[in-house]
Amino acid sequence: MGRIVQKFGGTSVGTVEKIKNAADRVLEEVNQGNEVVVVVSAMGKTTDHLVDMAREISPYPNKREMDMLLTTGEQITISLLSMELNERGHNTVSLTGWQAGIQTEGVFGNARITDIETDKIDKLLSSGNIVVVAGFQGVSGGEITTLGRGGSDTTAVALAAALHADKCDIYTDVTGVYTTDPRYVNSARKLKSVSYDEMLELANLGAGVLHPRAVEFAKNYKMPLEVRSSTEKENGTIIEEEISMEQNLVVRGIAFEDNITRISVFGLPLTGGGISSIFTALADSHINVDIIIQSVTGENETNLSFSVKTEDVKETLEVLEANRDKIRFARIETESDLAKVSIVGSGMVSNPGVAAQMFEVLSSNSISIKMVSTSEIKVSTVVSHSHMLKAVNALHDAFDLSDALAIKNN
């Protein structure tokens, strides 16, 4: 007997019929003698609908009340799935995040899991129950919190680690992890496996198939993950520590995301802590900064540019203005309608010239690069939003990711 954690995303439980299909997948594991914990997201576009209603009342709703509102979405799903499994003759108990013992830090809207008390779930499993847990949510000091969009992935992997599960299966509307998003690149192909580090980069860079925090948990606890289709009965993509290089494929994936804004801060003093004050203030406000570029313009002056998600621009500007006396900048400019396009691959470590090839491909396609960031296994560029998909398709072809022989399909 094994212990399995299964996670079903919103599209996989978007209707009652799809919930019945998810129940089929759950019972496949139960019938093999496994203990099963199921983590579910809100049905379909439920969360978006709740957000829209809140914004009809206020353009900037209170974050505590938003968490109270949004957590109702997952509660609908856990109840319906539990009812379906009960109707099929299986003892099933649904639990909210806080009933499941998921403790978080006290940050509304984007909390991190700090601990999971597993006694309740362990007892329920030992008594022969299937346990269905609401993803995306926890509790901090008696207050309901949410983990940010995509947080159900994190719930599933964190529970799998805490419960010492044998594996964690992420069921979604695609059959695995692809070289890039197959909705926008017809020649994208499924990868048989991908390393934790590669998947973490892809997730952080916009690949929506897994939440970055979920991959971090999996890497830290060496939890085997498989991204699988909730409708197609075929093997998915394994995320694990060590993988075999597939036909010497240096770049294994291309990630992209839009709604990027560049913020440029001009006239910063080189001394006095102005630059550190910027990032300290933004961190204190839980604003994530991505690509950072500094250019020294004079003996005692420098300019700084960094990228943020467009949804964070208003708050970012407010934070900078509130700290103007400490930062001592001359002016701020913003540029929106940008996108980030990134190449990822562990083979880049031992293959110099990959970045140069990327820049050459973009240049030959008349795509201007506005910002660049690199690490050992990725190169990210910021380009105009209008050029995003053109860049993705050109790079996908240039690095042979469309080659049927390059990817080992199952």
Descriptive report:
The protein is an alpha/beta fold. The protein folds into two domains: 3-173, Carbamate kinase (3-Layer(aba) Sandwich), CATH 3.40.1160.10; 243-410, VC0802-like, CATH 3.30.2130.10. It starts with a strand and ends in a 12-residue tail after the last helix. The chain has an eight-stranded mixed beta sheet, sandwiched between helices. It has a six-stranded antiparallel beta sheet with strand order 14-15-13-16-18-17. The protein has a two-stranded antiparallel ribbon with strand order 4-5. Strand 11 and strand 12 form a beta hairpin. Helix 2 packs antiparallel against helix 3, helix 5 runs parallel beside helix 7 and helix 6 runs antiparallel to helix 7 (212-221). The relative contact order is 0.11. It contains twelve helices and 18 strands. It has helices at residues 16-30, 46-57, 63-87, 119-126, 151-162, 196-204, 212-221, 274-284, 313-322, 324-327, 354-364, 388-398; strands at 3-8, 35-40, 92-95, 102-104, 113-116, 130-134, 137-140, 143-146, 167-172, 193-195, 225-229, 237-240, 253-269, 292-298, 301-309, 331-344, 371-375, 378-384. It is 34% helix and 28% strand. Residues 404-410 have low confidence and may be disordered. The radius of gyration is 23 Å and the shape is globular.
